[in-house]
Design goal:
Layout lengths: L1 E5 L7 H4 L21 H11 L3 E7 L3 E7 L5
Antiparallel strand pairs: 1-3, 2-3
EC number: 2.7.13.3
GO molecular function, one term: protein histidine kinase activity
Organism: bioreactor metagenome
Length: about 70
């Protein structure tokens, strides 16, 4: 099963892309918004626990897509 979640927000800076799945990570540009940096780390852990993958595709000023692929037997 493959599904994709996309937005049309500001995108994720290149310097932050390899960090967004780390627990408690918050990009400097998001520190004025509510949150604690756990959401994507939890998604990443659950997807991998079920043998799946999650891929980030983002462009500054154009938004971000996360593509999740889970095996059928998950």
């Amino acid at each position: 099963m493959v599904f994709q979640i996309c937005d049309t927000g500001c995108g994720i800076a290149e310097v932050d892309r390899d960090k967004v799945f780390k627990r408690f990570y918050r990009a400097d540009s998001s520190r004025n918004l509510p949150g604690n940096g756990l959401g994507l780390s939890l998604v990443h852990a659950v997807v991998h626990a079920h043998g799946g993958t999650i891929v980030l595709d983002t462009a500054l000023g154009a938004g971000t897509c996360f593509t999740v692929e889970l095996p059928r037997n998950a």
